[in-house]
Write a structure and sequence with these properties.
alpha/beta; Rossmann fold; formyl-coa transferase, domain 3; seven-stranded mixed beta sheet; three-stranded antiparallel beta sheet; elongated
Length: 396
């Protein structure tokens, strides 16, 4: 889909690299431009494979790695040489850093008028917010997300994964694609800026709209849906949890048949969606007793056979080894480039004809000489001189 599109990924840690990996999954050639010390995510503990941090491995598949020291003129000159022939640049620095480094949109557009710049920031690009640190947890907190997450009237909870960073990466990839489309049609580049906070507020969708209309403030409600019943989790005979959500009258009737209580569908307390919400606690009590009779897997199988929305609450190990995940290609086995040892990595959520199978994440500086030679036409003697000066680095 993005065959021939060259993206320079100057981002680090999670949100930006996740965006770069998404673009690679769509077929772009993504070149990870790193400082001499490498992306910080290369050092994140506690798990490692062949010397690589599992954190780094999770969001850098299918990329090439080029090491440039942008504090040296020759390093910046090399970056500008890449920009001349690139289609897009993405990064996630503090808002004042790009201009200070000479990689802001105006500077790069002067080199390549067709260049697209995708910028990921935390909060806002103007004082006093531009200097504020914006870690994932803090964004979850100030966006309203945490107030909706966790058990009712209990301590607010963070998402089980870094939803602010990852959603920011999704928006950054999508915005970069939009700007690339504009550049393709007009021949003129563009800058797209994505704020982690903006993304989380945007994802409030119907909760915020309900508040705008009613003035009622949404609150955390555990796994229970505030407007649909039943739509929550129940403990089963084996102590495992089952999620159910038979939304709509057809599913509700079939649901009642599966649990062996078909008359429940006509009970005046539960006969309509409005009645079920009004009597949700009474309904939950009835269902809790019913689900305690069988193990979660058995319930899951019975509901699946009747096409009723339900599923066991899987842990991560169960989620990535379930037949459906394997059928969908969501787990790849990729050989390490040096040892050949196979490593399981998550597959791509994009499915399209000719979709690429992404390579193992790159070693730091593994492609410096090859990329600068191909894209900037640097001869071997210049590459050697740049490496000797510390402006670039090539992995051994």
């Amino acid at each position: 889909m993005l065959d021939g599109v060259k993206v320079l990924d100057l981002s680090h840690v999670l949100g930006g690299p996740f965006a770069g990996q998404l673009l690679a999954q769509l077929g772009a050639e993504v070149i990870k431009v790193e400082p001499p010390e490498g992306d910080y995510s290369r050092t994140v503990p506690p798990h490692w494979f062949e010397g690589d941090s599992s954190f780094f491995l999770s969001c850098n598949r299918g990329k090439k790695s080029v090491v440039l020291n942008l504090r040296q003129p020759e390093g910046k000159e090399a970056l500008y040489g890449l920009v001349k022939v690139a289609d897009a640049v993405i990064y996630g620095f503090a808002p004042d850093v790009p201009k200070r480094l000479g990689i802001d949109f105006d500077s790069l557009a002067a080199i390549n008028p067709r260049i697209v710049v995708g910028e990921l920031i935390g909060l806002h690009d103007q004082p006093p917010y531009s200097k504020a640190p914006s870690f994932d947890l803090i964004v979850q907190a100030i966006s309203g997300f945490m107030s909706l997450t966790g058990e009712k009237d209990r301590t607010p909870a963070r998402a089980g994964y870094q939803i602010a960073d990852l959603a920011g990466g999704l928006y950054l990839a999508l915005g970069t694609l939009g700007a690339l489309f504009k550049a393709l049609k007009s021949g003129k580049g563009a800058k797209i800026q994505v704020s982690l906070l903006d993304c989380q507020i945007a994802m409030l969708t119907w909760q915020a709209q309900n508040y705008f209309i009613s003035g009622e403030i949404p609150r955390a409600n555990g796994a229970r849906h505030p407007m649909i019943a039943p739509s929550e989790v129940f403990k089963c005979a084996d102590g495992e949890w089952l999620a159910v959500s038979p939304t709509g009258e057809g599913f509700w009737r079939d649901f009642c048949k599966v649990i062996g209580q078909p008359d429940l569908a006509a009970d005046p307390r539960f006969a309509t969606s409005k009645a079920r919400i009004a009597n949700v606690d009474a309904l939950a009590a009835v269902l809790a007793k019913a689900f305690a009779a069988k193990p979660a897997r058995q319930w899951e199988d019975e509901f699946f056979a009747s096409r009723v929305p339900a599923g066991k609450v899987y842990d991560v190990a169960e989620a990535v080894t379930q037949p459906l995940a394997l059928l969908r290609g969501m787990v790849d086995e990729v050989p390490h480039p040096a040892s050949g040892q196979l490593m399981r990595l998550l597959g791509s959520a994009f499915k399209f004809s000719g979709s690429p199978s992404l390579a193992y994440p790159p070693r730091l500086g593994a492609d410096t000489f090859a990329v600068l030679g191909a894209m900037c036409a640097y001869p071997p003697e210049k590459l050697a001189a740049l490496a000797a000066s510390g402006a670039v680095a090539q992995a051994e």
